[in-house]
């Protein structure tokens, strides 16, 4: 998340306690509408935000009800807090309005409060409130067979050969029963320990619990500045074997297929930003950067631009959604092929989790490596980008690498 200049802001007040974000989460997680925007993989300037008890919850569809979001942002409020929640791949959104909360600066270890937000328990007692590390195992099962997924890949390649698309992202879900005694926060704490991520989140909103360990930034906006960081290209980690780990990086960076796939999606993202940015302002300061995560290496690029006058963050989000890295190129036709080939609705998966801030800052992840618990089930999806020279079996194996973090946390 953004590193705010909160030390000098009149909207933030320094808190005199030294609890960790996990300890504060344990105090707040049973409050209605609990939100934890969690920089569990700490990057320079990272902050985490925790809040609960929204003054209202907006729900609707991005095509019909998006003006509700703009209207809420235009309502006069203090310049702290915002609208936090998610937008599903299908466009359905759930956003709570939070004018209060806590911010933790990872670089200083200091807490700040904004709005009228008070902890109910003494911070010194926070450690005792953490959920037990042991939790009942979850028995996730893939909802398609390996043969089914390989057939999906082959059909997608037929469309590529026919010239319909250049690239498409295909996915499938894993599903498990949710035991009555299960603790979602305990599961999330295991997940963030196993798979720390820069754009992680834990949310309980509108009867749904979301646990995200996403490494991917969909949009970051500050005033008129906008950036996106698409991911394409994956290799598994070998953390106990440094030689194999290094070889995996070398293989990823030298892969013509992976580099070409990221270049396609980077061009698509340049086009998306070009719809809302000033002419000539869109640039690619990073291309084919390798980033390391607990289970995998990824190739990442960065695309930036300057929003045109009168284009706000709500407009920019709508123009770019859903992200190109999880649909394909061209985006419209790839989305149609996804709807045809994938036998299960994506739900939140490959939508976005994040916030529109009252202070002119917004940040959204791509909702990958994300589990959704509702009623008696918990579900997550995994996927892979398909191009002309993809090897279907290898693409299936890539989905297993991406599932490894959640499966390890669930075991």
Automatic annotation (TrEMBL):
Pfam families xref list: Chorismate_bind (PF00425)
A biological process term (GO) from this entry: L-tryptophan biosynthetic process
Domain of life, per lineage: Bacteria
InterPro entries xrefs: ADC_synth_comp_1, ADC_synthase, Anth_synth_I-like, Chorismate_C
SUPFAM superfamilies to which the protein is assigned, alphabetical: ADC synthase
Domain Chorismate-utilising enzyme C-terminal residues, every copy: 147-402
NCBIfam families in the cross-refs: pabB (TIGR00553)
Listed name of the protein: Aminodeoxychorismate synthase component I
Source organism phylogeny: Bacteria, Pseudomonadati, Verrucomicrobiota, Verrucomicrobiia, Verrucomicrobiales
């Amino acid at each position: 998340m953004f590193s705010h200049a909160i030390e000098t802001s009149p909207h933030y007040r320094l808190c005199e306690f030294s609890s960790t974000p996990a300890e504060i989460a344990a105090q707040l997680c049973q409050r209605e509408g609990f939100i934890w925007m969690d920089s569990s993989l700490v990057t320079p300037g990272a902050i985490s935000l925790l809040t609960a008890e929204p003054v209202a919850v907006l729900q609707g569809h991005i095509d019909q009800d998006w003006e509700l979001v703009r209207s809420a942002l235009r309502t006069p409020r203090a310049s702290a807090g915002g609208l936090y929640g998610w937008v599903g791949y299908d466009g359905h959104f759930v956003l709570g309005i939070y004018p209060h909360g806590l911010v933790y600066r990872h670089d200083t270890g200091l807490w700040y409060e904004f709005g009228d937000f008070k902890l109910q328990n003494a911070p010194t007692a926070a450690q005792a409130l953490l959920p037990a590390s042991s939790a009942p195992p979850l028995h996730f099962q893939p909802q398609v067979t390996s043969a089914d997924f390989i057939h999906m890949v082959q059909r997608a390649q037929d469309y590529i050969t026919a010239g319909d698309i250049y690239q498409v992202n295909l996915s499938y879900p894993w599903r498990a029963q949710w035991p009555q005694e299960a603790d979602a926060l305990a599961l999330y704490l295991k997940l963030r320990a196993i798979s720390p991520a820069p754009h992680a989140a834990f949310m309980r909103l509108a009867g749904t619990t979301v646990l995200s360990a996403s490494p991917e930034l969909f949009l970051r906006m500050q005033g008129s500045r906008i950036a996106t960081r698409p991911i394409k290209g994956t290799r598994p980690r070998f953390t106990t074997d440094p030689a194999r780990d290094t070889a995996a990086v070398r293989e990823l960076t030298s892969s013509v297929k992976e580099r070409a796939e990221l270049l396609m999606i980077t061009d698509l993202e340049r086009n998306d930003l070009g719809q809302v940015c000033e002419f000539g302002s869109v640039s690619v300061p990073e291309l084919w950067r390798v980033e390391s995560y607990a289970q995998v290496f990824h190739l990442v690029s960065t695309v930036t631009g300057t929003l045109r006058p009168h284009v706000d963050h709500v407009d920019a989000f709508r123009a770019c959604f859903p992200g190109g890295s999880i649909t394909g190129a061209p985006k419209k036709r790839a989305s149609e092929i996804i709807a045809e080939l994938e036998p299960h609705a994506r739900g939140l998966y490959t939508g976005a989790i994040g916030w529109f801030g009252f202070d002119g800052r917004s940040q959204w992840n791509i909702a990958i490596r994300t589990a959704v618990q509702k009623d008696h089930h918990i579900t997550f999806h995994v996927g892979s980008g398909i191009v002309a020279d993809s090897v279907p079996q290898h693409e299936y194996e890539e989905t297993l690498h991406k599932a490894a973090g959640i499966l390890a946390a669930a075991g």
